[in-house]
Specification:
Elements lengths: L9 H12 L2 E2 H11 L8 H13 L3 E6 L2 E6 L1 H9 L1 H54 L5 H34 L5 H22 L2
Antiparallel strand pairs: 1-3, 2-3
Pfam family, one: PadR
Keywords: DNA-binding
Organism: Conyzicola lurida
Length: about 210
């Protein structure tokens, strides 16, 4: 089980440290956290807004309307708490660094697993295509040789397209992992997209 990013009560103090830099909208707070974690951790609105509300209730944060948005700002009492807990905040910063490394390792593991599955699926699809081409070649009549040649050309084109996709996506994914910016959303989009493509291709093969 993956340990929590923040220990109990630490997110509250970390939010105060973010607001000490500048007042922010709720969504800007979420973006600031995402940036601090290099995209490996993106808290939900359901995580952030209740804590901001509690900070306001405790007098550590104030809020003001800015058009249709709400801006949160640290109060003098909030700055006093930050000052009193400066040592604790340093420890939280160290913990954030460790969490970024751990989350990046988890992302790499997920990507490696997804890439292994992708390679297995591509290899399986290529084998099936070759098998079907061989079966079709054995059953085609002698006077239908042009069709057989066309099928082989189509198979070759399909395999080239598969390999080009694999090589291009592999390079892009590895680049993102190296930069520590590969998100769960990207992995999910890749997995869902491949499942959709596979279903569509299998549908055409079944016609």
């Amino acid at each position: 089980m993956t340990p929590p990013v923040f220990a109990h009560g630490h997110l509250r103090l970390y939010l105060l440290s973010l607001l000490a830099d500048a007042p922010m909208h709720g969504y800007e707070v979420i973006q600031a956290l995402e940036e601090r974690f290099g995209g490996t951790y993106v808290p939900s609105a359901g995580t952030i807004y209740p804590r901001l509300a509690k900070l306001e209730e405790d007098g550590l944060v104030s809020k003001a309307a800015d058009g249709r948005k709400t801006v949160y700002a640290i109060t003098d009492a909030g700055r006093a708490e930050l000052l009193a807990r400066a040592g604790e905040l340093d420890g939280i910063e160290d913990g954030v660094t460790d969490s970024v490394r751990r989350l990046a390792d988890d992302v790499r593991s997920s990507v490696n697993s997804a890439m292994k599955t992708l390679r297995a699926d591509l290899a399986s699809a290529a084998r099936e295509a070759r098998t079907e081409a061989k079966v079709a070649g054995r059953t085609i009549r002698a006077d239908a040789k042009p069709v057989q040649v066309e099928n082989r050309n189509q198979l070759a084109n399909a395999e080239v397209a598969i390999n080009e996709f694999r090589l291009e996506m592999r390079a892009k994914l590895r680049k993102q992992v190296t930069g520590g910016q590969l998100s769960d959303e990207t992995v999910a989009a890749l997995t869902a997209g491949l499942a959709e493509v596979r279903a569509r291709v299998e549908e055409t093969l079944g016609r």
